[in-house]
Structure formats: structure tokens, C-alpha cells
Amino acid sequence: MKNVPLTDTVFVFVHGAWHSSGQWAATQRALAGLGAASVAVDMPGHGFDAPLPTGYLLPGQPGLLTEKSQLATLTMDDCAGAVLSLLHQVRHHRSVVLVAHSAGGGPASLAAERAPELVDRIVYVSAFVPGGRARFFDYLGSPENATALGQNLNLGDPEALGAVRINPLSPDAAYLAELRETHYHDTPLDRFDRWRSALSPDLPLAIPTTPVTLTATRWGRIPRTFLRCAEDRALAPTAQDLMIAEADRAFPANPFTVHTLPGSHSPFAARPGELAAVLASSADIGP
Q1: Which of 47, 116, 117, 127 is within CB 3.0–4.6 Å of 105 for a Cys-Cys bond?
Q2: Is 134 domain-assigned?
Q3: Which domain covers residue 180, as residue numbers?
Q4: pLDDT, position 136
Q5: Could you say which residues of the chain have pLDDT below 50?
Q6: Structural domain total, the chain
Q7: What local confidence, expressed as pLDDT, does residue 284 receive?
Q8: Are 243 and 132 in contact (CB under 8 A)?
Q9: CATH classification of the domain holding 28
Q10: Are strands 257-261 and 202-204 parallel, antiparallel or unpaired?
Q11: Residue 31 covered by a domain
Q12: Does residue 119 belong to any structural domain of this protein?
């Protein structure tokens, strides 16, 4: 086995829907304490530069249900391109580990498919794996995901908006309770309020709806790990297991290494130190 020290490894983090590079900060600090470098990307339409619906920060949030998203024209190619740009910047490290969470699995997978020479291992943290089915919506809508929560969080018509829109600043206590139960149920309430206030309302519709096609000679040759979240209420463990099984059937020469974390869909919020330790243990890039 080729053992690359953590000091020669860089982790490249790709966030999920409505989040930003900032979600990884505590995990990155923990990794730094273990000797590993890391960097996180802001996907197009996310982070401090994310354009917001014009009424989002106004009293009453006028137009939130109907105003077309400024992210409606963003494509999966745009998002994969942001990941690729960062991968090119860090390729001087001996080992590059690409880590994706949730909806970030689509852009990360496409980036790895297009430039497998830039990635030594890819880690999915309860993230979309397009190995068996090409669209994230294909798994979100599967019977295996029927127990997932969050069905009442989406606002308006996603097709008309050009985005999957949520309202992290909602004044509705029941709405916020569902948001917490879906994504952050094991994060203390006072910390949840800080996390939700940092979310963006819009996910470009292209992210969950655009098919991502993978091949055995490119994405399929990269060692891969899946970190299951055992109490995930946004992407049910049965749906996570379905993605793993279908990807392994489609690419049997290079099956997943699987680890299970306790807790919710958001381990970077609830237990970043534990997440960092598991990432560090999975960083070996193989023979």
C-alpha cells in the first residue's frame, strides 16, 4: 500500500445545497491539528457572494414564493468547473482527497470524471453518488428515501423559480423546527440558529436535476469512500446504502470503502472533530 503522510495530503471540500465553504471551517481546524492541509470551495451561487431574492431580507419577504432565482441559468458544468479550478490549484500536494457533502456529490463526481488525474481519493459524506442513477432527484424520490423529512421546506415551484428555494430566515416556528429536524437535529438549538442564518435560500435547479454520467476508466478508477450518516433525516440511510450498492454494481472493480458516523446529515456542525478523524483515517490513496 502507498502510505502518504497527512502532512503531504490536502483535502478539497465541496459543500451541499444552500451551504458554503464556511460549513467546513471547524472540520478544517481539526484536520490542521492532525497535520493535514485543506481548502473549501464556494459553489457558484453560494457563500457571501450569493445573489438573494430581492425581498429575502425585507419585512414580510415579498416575492419569495414567485421571484425567479438569479441562479436559474447556472449549470452543472459551472459548478463542476469551480471544483476543477480548485483541484488544479492544489495538485502539487502528493495526495489530493476530494470530499463532497450531499448535493455537492454531483459537481464533485463530474469534476473527478473530467480530470481523474487530479484526485487520489474521493469521499462522499452522505452525498449524491451518480454511479447507479444519474440525477440526485432519482435518489431523493426513491422508495428508499421515503422516510426522509423536509418535504415542506421547499418554496414555490422549482421549475418556475429555476431553483430549489428554502427560507432559513422564516418567522414560522414550525418551519424552522422542520428545517432543524431535517438537517441539524443533533446540533444544539443556539448553534442551529447560527447555522441557519448562514444558509443561502436558493440551490440552482441544475444541481439535483442534471444527469451526471461516469465511466469506469475515469471516475471509476479513483479509490472512493462513503461516510454514512446513521441518523440522517434528509437522505435516509437506506437511500445512502442504495447509492453505494448501485455504484458498486456499476463499477465492481473498485468498490466503496464504507464508514458509518453517528448522527445527522450535518456532521460538520454536530461533530466536526469526529468527522476530521474519520477523514484522516480514510486518506490513504491505495496501491
Answers
A1: 127
A2: yes
A3: 6-281
A4: 97
A5: 1, 285-287
A6: 1
A7: 65
A8: yes
A9: 3.40.50.1820
A10: unpaired
A11: yes
A12: yes
